[in-house]
Specification:
GO terms for molecular function: 4 iron, 4 sulfur cluster binding; amidophosphoribosyltransferase activity; metal ion binding. With 503 residues, the chain is of the alpha+beta class. It is built from 17 helices and 23 strands. The protein is globular and about 75 Å long. It starts with 8 loop residues before the first helix and ends in a 9-residue tail after the last helix.
Length: 503
């Protein structure tokens, strides 16, 4: 899904990567199906819109051996891309979709996903969330085979690698699972993939489980999920986050395991194998999915993201208590942690900021002036709740430090007596090379200022972060996964990357 940073030293220095969402659906039972698969995929993508707001695409197949897929892609929000005419042309029995963030340079139609390539066995489509840590080496291998690439996208690189290696197939059908395993042997992370052949979808999660991927099933209307058998399932779905299942009436089944290859067909879901990590290496699920990126109602490791954020707030009070009158948050991703902080401290939670919900995230805007204007457009202070109060304001993270300062000024102008900032994640100090949009190391304010200096810089009475240990404890507090089978990538916080990056 990404423009590879490996294309040059300058890109490698920036750490500018992307965050995306993938979704797939296969109608169960007899085809042609009565289910509107394209509509299911579109609604699934809308539920993943927080993961990408610059472009989106859907590819569908009739599953009857035709040599063409139905494709519609475009720039902008999903609701603006897929009108009635587009949806009519996307009719099929299975389909995959993608929604994307990008850097400004890569925000072009040519990079919209899913990608479609035409092979000797027919078309193949792929959507990707993540970034290949060894993209340069893999690109050189593809070029050495005489294959040209039309984009700098890792996702196109993946499709060409799948088509090249290993050669051959099984009768009229290529050994796509074998090719997928070969790809996974060539590149350990980071990716969650949905790959559509003529009549089935493969879901792939890298061996470290860095990027999320989960399975669900669409049941008949009014069916009891507990008693419903697989023969009653109307469709199987796969998604970056389980939050997308609720919007289509699907039930969450489970997460795709790290290294697992699953196959979704009209006959059901099966596991085709699990690619192991090197001995002794733990999983490395991106811990920032809990902190910021995922929707609060998504489920990882048997717990909602909301419950983890609330526990992070509790841990934050235990580590950094403060005398205050009220607890509030920078809405909305800081709200769950603020409730946890309030409950643990015994202080009342009060909303002090009114959010304009029609303004996008300032985190991904490329210009400092635009980010500051974004804050002014995004929030208003509730003066009656603020005047004369000592406020603890909970934020989920601080990246450049540019957006919190105008918020503090807003609260002081509304009459706040004190404003204490508590951050429900550790300081961000390192770029991510696995698919998250994090600025350059030089832009990350935690590399320039410690907590006290940053408090003075943004105009707060105090500022403290949650520790890395506290965050990991919060994540593991309600996890249903055994600790020895779980592990988290904290590279952006600690600089400890799951694999070496000098490939």
């Amino acid at each position: 899904m990404e423009e590879s940073k490996s294309e040059g030293a300058a890109m490698a220095e920036t750490g500018l990567t992307h965050e995306c969402g993938v979704f797939g659906c296969v109608a169960a039972g007899e085809w042609p199906t009565r289910m509107d698969v394209a509509q299911v995929v579109c609604l699934g993508l809308i539920a993943l819109q927080h993961r990408g707001q610059e472009s989106a695409g859907i590819v569908t197949s009739e599953g009857t051996g035709k040599q063409n897929f139905n494709v519609h892609k475009g720039m902008g929000l999903i609701s603006n891309i897929f009108n009635n005419d587009a949806m009519e042309r996307l009719r099929g029995n299975l389909g995959i979709g993608h929604t994307r963030y990008s850097t400004a340079a890569a925000s072009e139609v040519i990079n919209c996903q899913p990608f479609v390539v035409h092979t000797a066995y027919g078309p193949l489509s792929l959507a990707h969330n993540g970034e290949l840590v060894n993209a340069r080496a893999l690109r050189q291998q593809v070029h050495s085979r005489g294959v040209g690439l039309s984009t700098h996208s890792d996702s196109e690189l993946i499709t060409q690698t799948l088509c090249l290696d290993p050669p051959g197939g099984e009768g009229e059908r290529p050994d796509w699972p074998g090719r997928i395993r070969h790809l996974m042997a060539l590149t350990p992370l980071a990716y969650s993939l949905v790959i559509m052949d003529n009549d089935r979808i493969y879901g792939v999660r890298d061996p470290y489980g860095n990027r999320p991927l989960c399975l669900g099933k669409v049941l008949p209307e009014g069916a009891d999920a507990a008693s419903c058998q697989d023969v009653d399932v109307e469709a199987w779905v796969i998604s970056s986050e389980s939050c997308s299942f609720q919007s289509i009436g699907a039930r969450f089944v489970r997460e795709v395991l790290p290294g697992e290859i699953v196959e979704l067909s009209r006959d059901g879901v099966s596991t085709l194998g699990v690619v192991d990590r090197p001995a002794g290496r733990p999983p490395a699920f991106c811990i920032f999915e809990f902190v910021y990126f995922s929707r609060p109602d998504s489920i990882y490791e048997g717990q909602t993201v909301y419950s983890v954020r609330k526990e992070s707030g509790r841990m934050l009070w235990r580590e950094s208590p403060v005398e205050a009158d009220i607890v509030s948050s920078v809405p909305e991703s800081g709200t769950a942690a603020a409730h946890g902080f309030a409950r643990e401290s015994g202080l009342p939670f009060t909303e002090v900021l009114c959010k304009n919900r029609y303004v996008g995230r300032t985190f991904i805007q490329p210009n400092t002036r635009l980010r500051k204007l974004g804050v002014a457009m995004k929030f208003g202070a509730l003066s009656e709740e603020v005047a004369g109060k000592r406020i603890v304001l909970i934020d989920d993270s601080i990246v450049r430090g540019n957006t919190i300062s105008p918020i503090i000024r807003l609260l002081r102008d509304a009459g706040a007596r004190e404003v204490h900032i508590r951050v429900a994640s550790p300081p961000l100090k390192h770029p991510c090379y696995m698919g998250i949009n994090i600025p350059t190391k030089q832009e990350l304010v935690a590399n320039r200022l410690d907590s006290a200096q940053l408090a003075a810089h943004v105009g707060a009475d105090s500022l403290e972060y949650l520790s890395v240990k506290g965050l990991v404890q919060a994540v593991r507090h309600g996890a249903k996964t055994k600790e020895e089978n779980s592990g988290y990538c904290t590279a952006c916080l600690t600089g400890d990357y799951p694999v070496r990056l000098d490939w």
